[in-house]
Design a protein that fits this description.
heterodimer; A: mainly alpha; 3-stranded antiparallel sheet; 3 strands; B: mainly alpha; Methane Monooxygenase Hydroxylase, Chain G, domain 1; 8 helices
Chain lengths: 190, 211
């Protein structure tokens, strides 16, 4: 039956229901487009035959192939759209710099889309209030200006001059929020 | 409560479909028994049992729902769709008697979805099918809701295994609500947490490395 490769692409995404981005299946995409090309050419030939040799009996087969073309188109569009939703979520969860392993899963056009989305979001945020407002901060209503955090992994030098070896720090919330979301720091609630 | 940054396109309601919904696309992949009412020239290769060049009229085959919907015409000149067993009179009586005992996951995981889509094929049994679907849902909903709101910190696989996809989605959202509420009660609602997405990526990287 036609459109088996297309449904495989959909299943690939459906398996990762938590929003993870799997590697871009360029090969799968190419196979679906190839199938569409074949179906289209077969239909062209049959349509010409209907017109020239008066073979109206070919219509059901033409209609079937057309349904397959529409189905493939639907699957590809949904595949690309769902990936776009996942990539958009990455900006809000990871921040504006994506780790290499995630970037590796995106095709060139998706990387381009991500950078344009970043720019749109940044210029929107700049336009709010004087000097801009970072709406990716304070995802939960803040209870205090300063919070207690514990360092979970080595992130290099932070922009605070805190040379002490104390593993726990008392830092302004706005500096930490991004790092907590990325799993670098841990919010300690007493 | 962790805000969801990724929200996929939800499935359509009732007889409708959402074009970009992954759930709807997978639902439409389900196969239905059909009978061809005309010849399909040059497509004999689709019918695995025959070596003929064309699909003859009167062939019994299984075609996916999306194809049946696309080809179906009211005057039945193209194909006629048979009702799958689960929606026929026999099983409808079982559902009407006691919907709570049925394993809807086994009856095809998309019981409600597929049933709603079957209504497109204008069978004379449509009013009964629609009524059974509705009553089955009403009969089972209470138990699904109760269990999703009370199963905290326990293995829910037994509760979930006999549910169809729609009920599973409801169960999941009930659980999300329960966990968020419990979090809030414990005073953890204001605690900033690492994003679930980031944690899952890290878990996956480790499993990629393991043999």
């Amino acid at each position: 039956m036609f459109c088996e490769k297309a449904i495989e692409l959909i299943r690939e995404l459906h398996r990762m229901s938590d929003g993870q981005l799997p590697a871009f299946n360029e090969d799968g995409l190419r196979q679906v487009l190839q199938e569409m090309q074949t179906l289209y050419e077969q239909n062209q030939r049959d349509v010409n035959e209907v017109k020239s040799a008066d073979r109206a009996d070919l219509m059901p087969s033409i209609k079937l192939r057309h349904c397959c073309l529409l189905r493939n188109q639907r699957c590809l569009t949904a595949y690309l759209y769902d990936r776009m939703l996942r990539i958009r979520a990455l900006r809000w969860e990871y921040g504006s710099v994506l780790p290499g392993s995630v970037q590796f899963h995106m095709c060139a056009e998706e990387l381009q889309w991500f950078s344009q989305y970043k720019k749109s979001l940044a210029s929107f945020m700049r336009s709010l209030r004087d000097g801009g407002l970072d709406i990716t901060q304070d995802m939960k209503p803040p209870k205090s200006l300063y919070i207690e955090v514990r360092c979970l992994k080595d992130h290099g030098e932070l922009e605070i001059d805190d040379p002490s070896l104390c593993p726990q720090h008392f830092l302004p919330r706005w500096k930490c929020e991004q790092l907590i979301r990325q799993g670098v720091l841990e919010h300690v609630v007493s | 409560m962790d805000t969801q940054s990724y929200v996929s396109v939800p499935p359509g309601v009732g007889m409708g479909e959402n074009f970009l919904s992954l759930d709807d696309i997978l639902l439409c992949h389900e196969r239905l028994p059909i009978r061809t009412e005309c010849i399909f020239p040059r497509l004999g290769f689709l019918e695995k049992s025959s070596d003929m060049q064309d699909i003859p009229e009167g062939s019994k085959m299984e075609l996916p729902l999306w194809l049946c919907k696309g080809l179906y015409e009211r005057k039945k000149r193209v194909l006629s769709v048979e009702l799958p067993k689960v929606y026929r009179e026999g099983w409808r009586t079982v559902f009407n008697a006691d919907p709570k005992v049925v394993d809807l996951h086994k009856m095809g995981p998309y019981y409600y979805g597929l049933g709603s889509q079957m209504l497109h094929f204008e069978s004379p049994e449509n009013p009964d099918i629609a009524q059974t679907l509705l009553q089955t849902f009403i009969g089972r909903f209470r138990r699904t809701m109760d269990s999703s709101q009370n199963a905290y910190n326990e293995d829910t696989s037994v509760l979930v295994e006999r549910l169809d996809c729609l009920e599973k989605a409801l169960f999941r959202s009930g659980q999300t609500g329960l966990h968020s509420f419990q979090n809030w009660e414990k005073g953890q609602a204001s605690q900033l947490t690492a994003s679930n997405l980031v944690l899952n990526y890290r878990k996956r990287k480790i499993t990629d490395v393991l043999p």
